[in-house]
User: Fold this.
Amino acid sequence: MTVRRIMGTETEFGISVLGTPSANPMLASSQVVNAYASTSARSRRARWDFEEENPLRDARGFDLSRSAADPSQLTDEDVGLANLILTNGARLYVDHAHPEFSTPECTNPRDVVRWDKAGEQIIVTAANAVRIPDQNPIVLYKNNTDNKGASYGAHENYLMKRSTPFPDIVRHITPFFVTRQVICGAGRVGIGQDGQTSGFQISQRADFFEVEVGLETTLKRPIVNTRDEPHADPEKYRRLHVIIGDANLAEISTYLKVGTTSLVLAMIEDRALTADLAIDNPVSELHKVSHDPSLKHLVTLRDGRSMSALDLQECYLEQARDYVDAHLGADADKQTRDVLDRWESVLLRLRTDPVSCRRELDWVAKLALLESYRERDGLEWDDPKLRLIDLQYADLRPDKGLYQRLVARGSIDRLLTDDEVTRAVSEPPVDTRAYFRGRCLAKYPDRIAAASWDSVIFDLPGRDSLQRIPTMEPTRGTRHHVGELLDRCSTAEDLFEAITS
Amino acid sequence: MAREGGQQHKTARKTSEEDSPPESAPSEAASERKEKLDDDVDAILDDIDEVLESNAEEFVRGFVQKGGE
Assistant:
């Protein structure tokens, strides 16, 4: 059991045209994505291939009919909004009224952080490339709400074994999702969906969740989302589409978010979770945990016990630690050990000295900053300045974003070097099918008509029809598998010939 | 309350990250640490003051998003 699996993140960025609240966000989002396309000299722009998309497939075993679906759920209809596939294997596109970046498929938490961070760099580059006469600059935010009732997502995806029964996943992941915000919450000023009740809460997203399980992502949001669209062999895999997370800026927050979640999923797959931690009323407890930054709130379990969010997280940690020790011992890989150690360390310090986590966790960093302002300036929680600090923490401009400023002055711990992030802007991970996709786009840009998670479509001279290379297995198409082949084939025709002959 | 008592103690095995001070620091060192923290906080707020948008109320009011996902 390890933290390793195929996984990635999708981030919808908040967007505004400075000083122009009436600006059309769809237009601004399209400008950003199209501007990024214009930053490369490529003459041809590959389309997104929607053939295998199935957003209405439900993990519980049925399809929602298209007529019964909310229009926002029909994400496979190509409505002509900007949609790019990048040489790092990622997707950059417009989703409703936000620019969205999906990382390429990664195999480990550290790589997820790396390509997630590359996404921030890409979106900032894109916004800076927008040149519209008489229009103010576009600013992007990595947050999840406008504090006026709207929320937008930061999703995670974890590929799992199809053989794991979905009810097992729901049963064991729900108490984990209700409580993991104490580690990976991004912090928010304002309580309630419209943020009008004053106060600080741990999570950006908690107040927007209304049901325990469901297919929707935009209304009646569920703690466990049932979208069952593996973008891979459905006999072998399911994809757990996680919509409950906050958009994190702190690298260690993202690292622990995906690392601990991947570990818990591995224990569910191996039927290794024995403790019954079922929560009596998960939706209401999700809100209450978020509303209590003192971390004292006691969650009521179905069996009558009361435990704090930290207690529940420690139960998961203990089981993971014991399981790794028992099955792998000294053979456990370095990242699995590191995730366990850091998980343990932050849980312990959240109990004894929470502010000591301010270099690692977004919500603690944000709260420490807010408390300093409250103390110095005597501000109440409803003061607009505190709301501004919350918002500006997520501003992605290097000179304006408060998270960016904290990093620049060395007040936040990092996992990655700037160079690693910059390389991930153009290079794919080497150990998933994203490698094949990314390198094809980099090497044969004029011959790729379209691509998606599970295909690359070539338009080759001398052939009437487009040639589709399926990439249904996420663990293939790696540098190990095709690196030498791609190095050797100087044209797309050579490559296609070599693959299909 | 009915916590699973034994489990919480086990997690105390690993206590400190490299840059956190020892738990049993003498009081002199502790007050030095507090002073240093206060200096740090002042320096942080000075930095942040310089970049905060000037009209907080208007800026926050102007940040209006549509739902997503």
Notes: Chain A has a mean pLDDT of 93. Chain A touches chain B through 64 residues (CB under 8 Å). DSSP finds 15 helices and 18 strands in chain A. The longest helix of chain A spans residues 109-129.
